[in-house]
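FIELD: query
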Amino acid sequence: MASEKVDFVEPFNKLLDAIEGAINAQGLWTAISYVGIVILLATLVTWLFQKRRGGSVNGQDAKTFFWPLLIGGICVAPKGIIPILLKILGGAINIIIHGVESL
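FIELD: result
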């Protein structure tokens, strides 16, 4: 693929820069990171207690652990995880666009 037609990362970075310019973003990112750490720790402790009781993490149980891990991870590292997810999404859309154009 010679050029990318869809890029979600650059607009997201511009949005973050605008937010940081408008407010005290350092305090905001710190608070959001603490919330993410609490979510991740609560999920980990819940998982450990469930495994200790002999429970398994499969089927419906796995979904209850996936979403808190994703949300906690995004809260801990919004400048790292969100751009990675946006890059993957943009790459998938670019592959689809390239496939349609080659028909």
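FIELD: remark
The chain has a mean pLDDT of 83.
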